[in-house]
Design brief:
It is a single chain. The chain is of the alpha/beta class. It is 25% helix and 26% strand. It has helices at 15-23, 46-54, 69-79, 89-92, 99-106, 120-124; strands at residues 5-8, 28-32, 60-63, 82-86, 109-113, 131-135, 161-172, 175-181. Helix 6 (120-124) links the parallel strand 5 and strand 6. The longest helix has 11 residues, at 69-79. The relative contact order is 0.17.
Length: 182
């Protein structure tokens, strides 16, 4: 299985930062879609997603279940990007009964904490969402697969597309970003 090293940021990268990331082996830069007061800190302009693609990187967007899900789906389709719903407590109050219906409307994947975090991902594994991204910073630097695998090696892995955000707020040559493998 091919893995793709990626980063994400609430701030919008410029062409130089995208080129620097690409030169350092990054294959994807993920951003955020914001609609109204949905809990997302800062949404990217549509032009920024286009800039990332023009720079030769793949992209996707984190979004909130508090936003209009049909509008998110339409915007993502127009941009040609994948949605991943961020269900952290800081975005929308955390996991709840509203998550599955929102994902069914938007077609988004799910981003949340793993078994060492808030437990969102383990609770949703049986739901067969189209993709999962686990936020798991708790595993130490020496963990086998950290930074090279798209899922923590000893955790139950969902069927389908997966990603592992293994470090947050990392200072890199292109700026401060979260780090992941997809």
């Amino acid at each position: 299985m091919t893995v793709l090293k990626g980063v994400d940021s609430a701030w919008e990268p410029n062409a130089s930062q995208i080129a620097t990331a690409k030169a350092n082996g990054v294959g994807a830069w993920l951003g955020y879609l914001k609609i109204g007061n949905d809990g997302i800190l800062h949404g990217w302009a549509d032009a920024t997603f286009a800039l990332v693609k023009a720079g030769g990187l793949q992209t996707a967007a984190y979004c909130s279940t508090r936003a209009d899900q049909a509008a998110l789906k339409a915007r993502a389709a127009a941009l040609g990007i994948v949605l991943i719903s961020d269900v952290e407590s800081s975005v929308n109050g955390g996991d709840g009964p509203y998550v599955d219906p929102a994902l069914a409307i938007s077609g988004a994947g799910l981003y949340g904490g793993g078994p060492r975090g808030d437990g969102t991902i383990p609770r949703h594994l049986p739901h067969n969402h189209p993709r999962y991204v686990v936020s798991d910073y708790e595993l130490n630097q020496a963990t086998i697969g950290r930074g090279t695998l798209s899922w923590p090696p000893h955790d139950a892995r969902p069927v389908g597309l997966c990603g592992w955000q293994y470090a947050g707020g990392s200072i890199m040559p292109w700026g401060e970003t979260d780090l992941g493998v997809y």
